[in-house]
Amino acid sequence: MDWQTHQEANRAGTELGGTYLYFDTAAAAPPVIAAVEAASEYLWKTTRTGPYLPSLRAEIYAQLDEIRGRAASFLGATPEELAFTRNGTESISLVARGLRFEPGDEIIVPDTEMLSNIAIWRMVATESGATIVTVAGGPTGLLDPEAVRAAITERTKLLTFAALSNVTGAVQPVVELCEVAAAAGVLVHVNAAQAIGMMPVGFDVWPCDFISACTRKGLRAIEGSGVLAVREQHLDALTPTLAGWWNAGLGDGEDVTFMHAARKLEAGSPNVPAILALGAAIAVAEGLGVDAIHTRVRELTEYAATRLREIQGTQIYGPERDADRLGILPFNIDGCDPAKLTLALERRGIIIEAGHFMATPILAAYGVERMARVSLHYFNTIDEIDQLVAAIDAERGINA
Ligand SMILES: Cc1ncc(COP(=O)(O)O)c(C=O)c1O
């Protein structure tokens, strides 16, 4: 892959790679230009002709069908197994709310998770009388399949975890975790919010039951889009949280009917601009090749980790082996306030993030309240990483 050529084409007209160096893909990546164009072209059409020009509607709905197929195959799923959502949090919530939990059921939510993969499970547990069981990832942030196996009881109904942690950057042993759960008849929900677009994800690589994802990060679509894949055999078990036109029909009596497809989880007018952008972003990722992206991000991650460690007083959190992390490098430097460091870097046009990343239990385990986080994608370069490290080194005296 000629990254340089792709870079130049995709940064034309932007300030990225010049005025700004962007290292915050874990929050949201700059969308690919094709995604922004797809959304804006549609919005312009709606203002020129009105959104319900019959031929435009027909064309758009055909495009949505085509993108559903593309998104599904990107996730190793069928079009019937794929739902468009507004974000990763909604995808997770549609699974949690859609399933039925009985009093005494157990849901395994490891301590490696961030708010969006904790809050809704706690809510449904409280409402149903189910129990949340925690499994510790430990300082590396990596889940041990044996620890999960030990936590499973005959009441365990579901295991949920993120394939790639937004906090530690740990890449979980997803296949092994799924196999341990499946052997005990436990459902598995994998949160691919950070993983999608960074590494191969999907039902064809993970033997899990549900995959939720946010598509404004590694996939570089626009804000307001997400996806959810539901294995065909679970479609009937999942009750839609929302109902109305687009996903529901009225039965003979008092009942409401839904189609046998994940689309039943989408209610009301679809978020057309975001879905069109999603289709364009997937096409770009497919054009580059997910395997090639994965290899590139892995190389950049290892280089950035090595260079960051050269800065005196730096501690990088998460997996000990760089091969167990992808793209995300959380760190602190002795005597340096991560929030002040982030602001100082912004003044230099270098964008990183500092905070608790909505994962206070993980930070508590490290005994820190905040960390700085560099997160990479294939569009970053070795030269950008060198500039970042030089800038951090120059600012590391910024103290608490
Ligand atoms: C690991 C993880 N899960 C879930 C989410 C939620 O995704 P969204 O922001 O699309 O709701 C995020 C990001 O914000 C995340 O990093």
Ligand list: pyridoxal-5'-phosphate
Number of domains: 2
Beta-strand percentage range: 5-15%
* Percent range of helical residues: 25-40%
Tell me the number of helical segments per DSSP (H or I, 4 or more residues long). Answer: 12
- Describe the main β-sheet briefly: 7 strands, mixed
Strands of the biggest beta sheet: in what spatial order? 2-8-7-6-5-3-4
**Can you tell me the overall shape?**
globular
> At the first level of CATH, what is the class of the largest domain?
Alpha Beta
- pLDDT under 50 segments (min length 5)? none
Q: Please provide the ordered H/E string of secondary-structure elements.
A: HEHHEHEHEHEHEEEEEHHEEHEEHEH
CATH superfamily of the largest domain: Type I PLP-dependent aspartate aminotransferase-like (Major domain)
InterPro entries: Aminotrans_V_dom, Aminotrans_V_PyrdxlP_BS, PyrdxlP-dep_Trfase, PyrdxlP-dep_Trfase_major, PyrdxlP-dep_Trfase_small
Family: Belongs to the class-V pyridoxal-phosphate-dependent aminotransferase family. Csd subfamily.
Protein name: Cysteine desulfurase
Catalytic activity: (sulfur carrier)-H + L-cysteine = (sulfur carrier)-SH + L-alanine
